[in-house]
Amino acid sequence: MKVLLALCVLATSGAALAADRNIYDVMYLPAAGTVYGITNYNSYSGYVKGNLGEADIKGTIIEQTVGFSAADWLSFYVDLNLANIKQDIDYDPATNAAGFPDSKSTVKGWSDPTVGLRFRAFDSGLRFDLIGEATVSNDDKEEKGDEITNKQGGSSTSYGAEVGMKDGDMQWSLGAFLNNYAKATTSYPDLGFEVKTDAYSEKVVVARLLNKLGNSVFLRTGAFVGVTEEYDDDAGATYESVTEIKVGPELQFLLYEGFLLRTGVTYNTYNSGGVDEHYYWILNVGANYQF
Fold first, then answer.
1. What angle do CA 181, 44, 81 make, to 5 degrees?
2. pLDDT of 192 strictly over 70
3. Which letter, b or e, does each residue of 226-257 get, where b requires 16 or more Cβ atoms within 10 Å of its Cβ?
4. What would the pLDDT profile of 76-96 be if each residue is shown by its tens digit?
5. Integer angstrom CA distances of residue 122 from 4, 11, 24, 221
6. What is the per-residue pLDDT across 244-259, written as a single tens digit (0 to 9) for each?
7. b/e for 174-208, b at 16 or more Cβ within 10 A?
8. Distance, CA of 26 to CA of 286 (rounded, Å)
């Protein structure tokens, strides 16, 4: 009963401030009954150099989110993406001599679907949200010929919290999340076997800042840090801990209350054992819209 009463109070306080919702909010959660979408077109250009050689990486990922606010304090959404990322790998001479020729491959196709929710627990000057997601694995990851499917090979869950404030022409938010990846399978039909990886987790911190530059122009900057733990597979390989960092600005243009255009650039780098350099530049064009 106490829990039910608390939820009712939170829902009432959220409803009182629902009018102070904008499509450009860094902690976006529209008013009850709103259907919304987010579309991103990302162009990738990257480079990897490690102990065994180097690789150039180029391509695109199109991301689509569709969501619905069931209440002023609760929204649900579904995410999908469509990838076409080409990898051109040049091994060093010793690796070539060991039987690994230079190769080209493409990660392509639809991702596994992700479903999520955002629950606004507090909205009175300071905002506090709880966020949960689940990615549903509908197929193994497959490497066949020079094509790799855009799948995880296993399910995953994510949960965390985000706190922030909206104050005049400035907004900020800070979030912390734990991503849990279940055991996953990658199949190699041409070779007649499959590899299963152990479950592992990733800890993530995200910070965002939004500044109003003009009547309908905004500058949004963000930073992401994620650290995965070490894990193994059943073929005897060990995947070392990886630290991933993303930083970058984005310009946003509010065409009208229900439509926001965005463009930006992100620098994405990785740090892991056996890798000297690993980075991407990501150019983004996107739109947010609500009905």
1. 50
2. yes
3. bebeebebeeeeebeebebebebebebebeee
4. 999 999 999 999 989 888 778
5. 15, 9, 19, 24
6. 999 999 999 999 999 9
7. ebebebebbebbbbeeeeeebbbbbebebebebbb
8. 15
Residues 6+ apart with CB under 8 A from 194: 140, 185, 186, 187, 188
Amino acid (one-letter) located at 32: A
Query: What global pTM score does this model have?
Result: 0.89
How many C-beta atoms lie closer than 10 Å to residue 264's C-beta? 19
Residue whose pair of structure tokens reads 């059943």 in the numeric block: 234
Give the whole-angstrom CA distance, residue 41 versus residue 29: 22
Beta-carbon count within 10 A of 166 CB: 21
Look up residue 155 and give its DSSP letter.
-
Q: The tokens of 61 are what? A: 């990922």
Q: Which residues have C-beta within 8 Å of that of residue 16, sequence separation ≥ 6?
A: none
